Amino acid sequence: MIKVLIVDDHALVRMGIRRLLEDMSDVDVVADAESGEQALAYVKTHSPDVVLLDMKMPGIDGWEVTRRLKKQTQILKS
Q1: How far is CA 8 from CA 2, 20, 22, 26, 62, in A?
Q2: Which residues pair with 6 in a beta bridge?
Q3: Is a pLDDT exceeding 60 seen at residue 76?
Q4: Residue 72 — very low, low, confident or very high, per pLDDT cuts 50/70/90?
Q5: Is the domain 2-72 a CATH 3.40.640.10 member?
Q6: Paired residues of 77 in beta bridges
Q7: How far is CA 52 from the centre of its chain?
Q8: In the chain, what are the domain boundaries?
Q9: pLDDT per residue over 13-40, tens digit each?
Q10: Which residues are annotated with the PTM 4-aspartylphosphate (predicted)?
């Protein structure tokens, strides 16, 4: 099972992606986050295999989230 975290500041986008992924038998959407701050916290608690990340968000944007995640983990492909 592939664990996925969805990150986007627009609820409608998160909901649409979740619905698409939930139809896949080998994908488990473990959480969705509306901000970069939430995403960083959820990565620690849910240990997703994949993070689908909006790059343009208010506050901590996707680029900064990616930089911080690269520092936190050895296994990260962007």
Answers
A1: 19, 15, 17, 22, 9
A2: 32, 52
A3: no
A4: confident
A5: no
A6: none
A7: 5
A8: 2-72
A9: 999 999 999 999 999 999 999 999 999 9
A10: 54
